[in-house]
Amino acid sequence: MTGIYTRLVSKLLFPLHERLKKHDTVAIKAQLEKSQWLPRDKIMQAQNERLKEFIGQIIKEVPYYKALFNKLGLSSSDINSVDDLHKLPFLNKTTIRENYSALKSNQAGAVSSFTTGGSSGTPLTFLLGDERVSHDVAEKWRATCWWDVDIGDKEIVAWGSPIELGAQDKVRILRDKLFRSTLIPAFDVDESKLLGFIDRIKSIQPQMLFGYPSVFSLIAKLALVQNIDLTKLGIKVVFVTSERLYPYQREMIEKAFGAPVANGYGSRDAGFIAHQCPSGSMHISAEDLIVEIIDNDGNVVEDGEKGEVVITHMATSDFPFVRYRTGDIAALDKKTCACGRGLPVLKDIEGRTTDFVVAANGTMMHGLALIYILRELEGIEEFKITQETKLHTRVQIVLSHNSELSSALKEKITSGFKARLGDEVIIDIEISQQIEAEVSGKFRYVISKVT
Ligand SMILES: [Zn+2]
Questions:
Q1: How far, in Å, from the CA of 426 to the mean position of ligand 1?
Q2: How far apart are the first and last CA of the chain?
Q3: What is the 138 CA–ligand 1 centroid distance (Å)?
Q4: 344: CA distance to ligand 1 center in Å?
Q5: Model-level pTM?
């Protein structure tokens, strides 16, 4: 049963809010609700049509793509389907940085600049237009409806980004109140903070939890150890995202909250790529996103084979993401899902993982606490942080072109890390040419050897 307040929000307040922000989320979501049930070949056919239109538009309006097609001797008629995408080069963080202004459409409306959070080892700034934001919101909304959670149902978001937490302006507070979304900071967590989260969850009684699996599994573990019953609060689903979800985490979260865990795969830069349905499949938001899987040489692999996930997001005409390399590993699954949705399915996703780190005084904090220090500094291209012991952390850095490890930069890193981990901790900074993936093929940018 949907509550009256939820109906009021989803039918009235949310559409109004979106109209004020000039988003078409409501219309897009209504369309997505229908298209998800189409047979897969129809969805893929529509995807090809949309791709042609999108390519035609960005060649005209985006200087980078205009120049690129010229240089390659291609015209819009050379890209007729997803199978033609291989004619275009990949986009990666370096390409985006080097062509930042040329990637902005001449016709771009209001755009806001966004710097990637998550566990990415390379900071990236890009532009988000209204088109993209409304499609991203509509995709998330559709996925929560799969679990019987609508916009306006109470939600608790556990997030670790000090930037998002800092955006507590009046509009934001109003919006959160209106849509009954409560943000709890999960930046550094010790037992007393976790108990505080548990109290918030008990008093708010949300229909949905949303955030990092690592944070919710810490909360779940503590609740289980202390016999705190969270299974009768009416939580319908725990949506986890941004990190790899391990089976033991899923088990613990489901047990503690008495609700299923729904995995979401995506990031702010690549978009909401896939969401899990109640039948267990990770459905790709194929109306907006094309997923290609490539091998080490950059060739598209057969369906079912593992490789790097490459994304073309077709709601990005203000600042296009075409063949964007995510660095994550996954495979396309040919199966049709039991839920009946025709949306294609992604399997065996191995995203980047980020560990929790432990300060000298025992406080546990999300790896992002350290990532943000490096992300804010000029001159750092990539990094990897390894916590060897509570008193020793290594920081590997790849410097940007023309940058050097000045004593000022060194001092900023050291003081930032000591402020988080403790004054007595030794911070070793090493310069590398390249950050290698782990033996398992995964990229981990924060590794803690402290248990
Ligand atoms: Zn399904």
A1: 49
A2: 44
A3: 18
A4: 9
A5: 0.77
The CA 276 to ligand 1 mean position distance, Å, reads: 7
* Nearest-angstrom CA–CA distance, 290 and 202: 40
Task: For residue 299, report the distance from its CA to the centre of ligand 1, in Å.
Answer: 28
Residue 123: phi and psi, rounded to 5, are: -65, 145
Dihedral of alpha carbons 438, 442, 446, 448, sign: negative
Amino acid found at 367? G
Fold of 354-448: GMP Synthetase; Chain A, domain 3 (3.30.300)
Kindly list the domain boundaries of the chain, sorted by start residue. Answer: 4-350, 354-448
For the stretch 331-357, pLDDT in tens is: 999 889 999 999 999 998 876 556 678
Q: How far is the CA of 217 from the centre of ligand 1 (A)?
A: 25
Residue 184 has pLDDT above 60, yes or no: yes
Q: What is the DSSP string of 145-197?
A: HHTT--BTB-EEEEE--HHHHH---HHHHHHHHHTTEEEEE-SEE-HHHHHHH
CA 161, 165, 166, 171: dihedral to nearest 10 degrees? 140
Residue 13 has what DSSP assignment?
A: I
* Ligand 1 centroid from CA 331, angstroms: 16
- Distance of CA 330 from the midpoint of ligand 1 (Å): 17
* CATH code reported for the domain at 4-350: 3.40.50.12780
Question: Where do runs of H (alpha helix) occur along 363-406?
Answer: 368-375
Residue 441: its pLDDT value, please? 44
CA of 67 from ligand 1 middle (Å) equals 41
Distances (CA, A) of 192 to 94, 195, 198, 213, 225: 41, 5, 10, 19, 14
